User: Fold this.
Amino acid sequence: MTALIPTAPLPPASLEAKARLEQRLAPELMAAMVSRSADVSATCRRLSATAVTSADFDQLLCVQDELAMCRCRIEAAS
Assistant:
């Protein structure tokens, strides 16, 4: 296992630029996450209503995992 190599802290100007960039992108990223969550939720509902084969149920499990990940990302971002 490779040991972590400590790095120097970023200079204040870099920290400020990073903060400005994150602040500018935050609304767009949140909107994209909410949109993705809505799409995945619709797919989950569709599969829940129409799943018949084991492959359908396997896909439903994957979609449910994706939905959980979307919810975690939205929660972490808010």
Remarks:
- The mean pLDDT is 86.
- The radius of gyration is 19 Å.
- Helices lie at 12-50, 54-77.
